[in-house]
Design a protein that fits this description.
This protein is an alpha/beta fold. It has 29 helices and 31 strands. Among the domains are: about 300 residues, FAD/NAD(P)-binding domain; about 230 residues, Alpha-Beta Barrel (TIM Barrel), CATH 3.20.20.100. The site of flavin-adenine dinucleotide has 39 residues, from helix 1, strand 8, helix 8 and helix 15.
Length: about 850
């Protein structure tokens, strides 16, 4: 479906990806430009993009989960896009270099200067123009010259400038060839980075999750965050993959100093000399580049009058503007050789196109200007910067999105004092335009009077900035002047998030230029071998290990055991557990007719409605389903609080029921059991079908033929035996190659018993049930051994939660290519299971624990340490 180097995380073979030198998080305006630049400089880049090639409702919903407080920040929902190309899919592509004022200390606004000199960015603006295909763009005087127009002279307060627009605004299109063809650039879609792994002060892994729940960790010597202002702050605020806070999490500016432009209607313009007005203020097109005239407050005037950075432009309103917009896109589409317009509207629009095309084409050809009818008037729009405030902030909320990541809440604050800049500038601009004899300006009276109430009507500009500001030291910002995160050697931020103040300009051009500056410093470090660690470090690594497959369907190394699930009165609780497992990334579910008083299959089936295709399910036959009356179930649900408080009352009851049950492997029994399981699970097939607690004598030729028949009918995909280990081993030897899977218990107490092989898949269970309590008790009696093992594992193993994590990780290590089943009645613990599955440092702890445990424990667990 995709070309050579463009993949989706949920489908890609992770082992086949090239090892990157740089990971870029986010494929929007900044990330794509940086990726292209680095790849063209022969550096190996992995770009991780949360969205896919098209905007989808499901993906976009993750952006829309954010909320705001304070001034309405509409762009938080309607101005951010989770798709390859990010905002460039919908922006105009207006490119404006930063206002000089931000490089100066402005004590009257309490704004600190940017920690870099303006000259440090100039070369990168030029490079950005080149990459965007605007090598031929002209300086302002040259534009006027080519238009054959003498502009009005700038006044001491107002500068008349041009902004430039990218000829191809959609960066996924602009860099399509790099994305699809460059051997140095791998783009992974549907790959949201959700956490980092760190060692000392280095990021050593970017944990990534797809919408379908597939996860992987990617590694490279350098990591760059280019995932847009709000998402950059969000990612930096999240805990590390280990659950620990990130080293930068205490930075006083993290998430703070959020900015947007204050955008507003200032009033109307009534041209005195209409022709001259259009001559000055209509957009111009020269050599394929569009230029827009803007009026900005001169830098000296800002100093003199102690104001902020601000600019204005005119909007031409027409009853025909909708049709005009269609005509423009139609012409653009024709020129690009592809249709971005809705062709169904073409016949309806044809008349208008004919009507417009003559003046449009004539004005374009003869004057290189846009035709701007203005029968509904000319509006003056202002765009002003706001002062950075600690209280204007991006924060994490209690809510989580469907990937399990905390949602974002943005508090957008704008001070009343900002009215001074808006009002004074509006008056200066009116004076300038009227003085030049161009138009009469009628300002909004509240604005002219400097009334702060005017601010109630402001808009945001879809220009989110700040939250990870740059500064000379960590007390003043989140990143240094080279955009490196304070507290991390190899983590950089590229984007408007780093702006300590914004000036008036649209933010993206400078963000791109700063990103290109980061590229240069990374390339320099790689060329001079100043990588944070040796280059051999760079690798792409599926989390912890490769994912196991059942009948060709990829699933997860950790499966959820459903023995505790019950339906009916406790369905909601059961669903919560299943959803927590899914959120944690678990995709395999193991159930049986006998589980949950006979209702676990109903509970699982109900919880998985609509998600069947995302998971693999194993169920069994052989132990009869208990027939429990509904009033018993109700009484059980009502007694749940008592059971929770006194777990010893019911501990083991379920397993005793199962152990006491009679084994039944008659063919009609197996058939009826399967039919009933499919009905209750609301599915047409089982991924795995086990003979439950089968002994060698149960596995007759007749049973084998029958099972084979079920497999060939597609009712079950794989067949296995779930029994004790010795029975499994004997059956495997007796029927070589018949069974696809074996399932038996394994814990650290069987440490010298690796999986016996003989099947495509080994599943183990009871890693905690068999070991947590005895090992925990032993460690509490032997503090010296506990200390030595804790040191080896680098974790405090006297804490039950840590011990549980390590024991489970040991089971994962012992069954590297298979599936380990685990369970819990607590949703938080279930979520944690998912984290254990992927945690690289836990894996290291488990390895050390596995090596040291036998010596420490000696023969203490002798009797239990036999195969279970
Ligand atoms: C209608 C409109 C018009 C605009 N016009 C202009 C203009 O003319 N000029 C201008 O300068 N600006 C304009 N903007 C603003 C501009 O679009 C943004 O400033 C710009 O897109 C920001 O670029 P970026 O690369 O930092 O982020 P984005 O373009 O937002 O890209 C970020 C990317 O990161 C991905 N992502 C997010 N989180 C993760 C994660 N955890 N893991 C992986 N990927 C992730 C997102 O899916 C997205 O693709 C406009 C915006 C809008 C909405």
């Amino acid at each position: 479906m995709y070309s050579d180097m463009l993949f989706e995380l949920s489908r890609v073979d992770l082992g086949a990806l090239p090892a990157p030198e740089i990971i870029i998080v986010g494929g929007g305006a900044v990330g794509l430009t940086m990726a292209a630049e680095l790849a063209r400089k022969q550096r190996r880049v992995l770009l991780l993009e949360a969205g896919t090639k098209r905007v989808s409702r499901e993906s976009q919903a993750l952006m829309e989960g954010a909320s705001w407080e304070g001034f309405p920040l509409v762009g938080l929902h309607s101005g951010r896009f989770r798709v390859l190309g990010g905002g460039t899919n919908f922006w105009g592509g207006q490119l404006v270099p930063m206002d000089q004022a931000v490089f100066l200390d402005r004590p009257w606004r309490e704004e600190t200067a940017w920690p870099i000199a303006p000259e440090e960015i100039q070369a990168y603006y030029r490079r950005a123009f080149e990459l965007i295909g605007m090598r031929q763009q002209l300086e302002d005087p040259e534009v006027w010259k080519r238009l054959g127009i003498t502009p009005p002279a700038s006044s001491s307060n107002i500068d008349l400038i041009f902004t430039r627009w990218a000829p191809e605004p959609n960066f996924a299109q602009l860099f399509a060839e790099d994305i699809e063809k460059s051997p140095n650039l791998t783009v992974l879609l549907d790959a949201q980075v959700t956490a980092f792994e760190m060692e000392n002060d280095r990021v050593v892994g970017a944990r990534t999750k797809s919408l379908s729940g597939r996860e992987a960790t990617f590694r490279a010597p350098f990591v760059v965050l280019a995932n847009g202002t709000v998402e950059i702050a969000r990612l930096l605020m999240l805990p590390l993959a280990s659950g620990q806070p990130a080293p930068w999490s205490g930075n006083p500016w993290l998430g703070k100093g959020f900015l947007d432009h204050v955008d507003c209607d200032a009033g109307s313009a009534y041209p005195i000399d209409k022709e001259r007005f259009h001559e000055i203020f209509d957009n111009a097109y020269i050599d394929g580049v569009k230029y827009s005239p803007k009026l900005k407050l001169a830098c000296d005037a800002q100093m003199k009058h102690e104001l902020g950075s601000i600019a204005g432009h005119f909007l031409f309103n027409s009853s025909l503007s909708e049709h005009l917009a269609f005509a423009k896109s139609f012409v653009k589409s024709l020129m690009r050789g592809r249709f971005d317009v809705d062709l169904k509207s073409l016949p309806r629009e044809a008349l208008f196109i004919l009507r417009f095309s003559l003046p449009l084409v004539l004005r374009y050809i003869f004057y290189r200007r846009m035709y701007n009818p203005a029968d509904l008037g000319i509006q003056l729009r202002l765009t002003s910067e706001q002062r950075a405030l600690m209280s204007s902030a991006i924060t994490l909320s209690e809510e989580r999105d469907c990937l399990g990541v905390p949602q974002v809440k943005v508090v957008w604050k704008v001070e009343e004092a900002e009215i001074a800049t808006l009002s004074r500038f509006a008056l200066m601009l009116a004076e300038y335009i009227e003085g030049a004899g161009l138009a009469r300006i009628e300002l909004d009276p509240r604005l002219a009077a400097g009334d702060p109430a005017f601010l109630q009507g402001i808009d945001d500009a879809n220009h989110q900035m700040g939250g990870a500001r740059m500064a000379g030291d960590a007390a003043g910002g989140v990143v240094d002047a080279n955009l490196r995160v304070f507290g991390a050697q190899n983590l950089f931020v590229a984007g408007a998030a780093v702006y300590p103040s914004s000036g008036f300009p649209n933010p993206t051009f400078t963000a791109i230029a700063l990103g290109l500056r980061v590229c240069d410093s990374i390339v320099d470090a790689l060329q001079n071998d100043r990588t944070p660690e040796s280059k051999a470090e760079s690798r792409v690594e599926p989390l912890a290990r490769r994912h196991p497959k059942i009948a060709g369907v990829e699933t997860t190394p950790l499966g959820f055991g459903c023995a505790y699930l019950t339906a009916g009165w406790e369905q909601r609780k059961s669903s919560r557990l299943i959803h927590a497992a899914l959120e944690g990334g678990i995709r395999h579910f193991d159930v049986a007719p006998s589980y949950g008083m006979g209702s676990a299959e109903d509970a699982l089936g109900a919880a998985l409605v609509g998600r069947r295709s995302e998971v693999t399910i194993a169920s069994k036959a052989g132990l009869a389903r208990p027939q429990v009356k509904s009033y018993v179930m109700a009484a059980r649900a009502l007694a749940a609080p008592i059971r929770r408080a006194l777990p010893m009352i019911t501990r083991g009851v379920g397993s005793k029921v199962v152990q006491g049950a009679r084994r039944q492997f008659g063919l009609p029994v197996i058939e009826a059991s399967l039919t009933e399981s499919l009905r209750r699970l609301r599915t047409d097939y089982l991924d795995l079908f086990f003979l439950h607690q089968a002994e060698p004598e149960d596995v007759t030729d007749e049973v084998l033929r029958f099972l084979d028949d079920l497999r060939s009918k597609g009712l079950v995909r794989w067949i296995g035996v779930a029994s004790d280990r010795s029975a499994c081993e004997t059956i495997a030897v007796a029927h070589p190659g018949f069974f696809d899977a074996f399932q038996y218990s394994w814990s650290i107490l069987n440490h010298d018993c690796p999986p016996f092989g003989g099947a495509r898949l080994t599943l183990t269970h009871r890693a905690l049930l068999n070991a947590l309590q005895p090992v925990g008790e032993w460690l509490s009696q032997r503090p010296d051994a506990c200390q030595r093992l804790s040191e080896a594992a680098q974790m405090d193993l006297s804490a039950e939660r840590n011990l549980a994590d390590v024991l489970l990780s040991c089971a994962l290590l012992a069954n590297e290519d298979g599936i380990v089943l685990a369970s819990s009645r607590k949703t938080q613990r279930v979520r944690r299971l998912g984290e254990v599955m992927e945690n690289q440092s836990l894996k290291n702890s488990a390895r050390a624990f596995l090596a040291a445990f036998p010596q420490e424990a000696g023969t203490y667990f002798g009797s239990e340490a036999r195969p279970a």
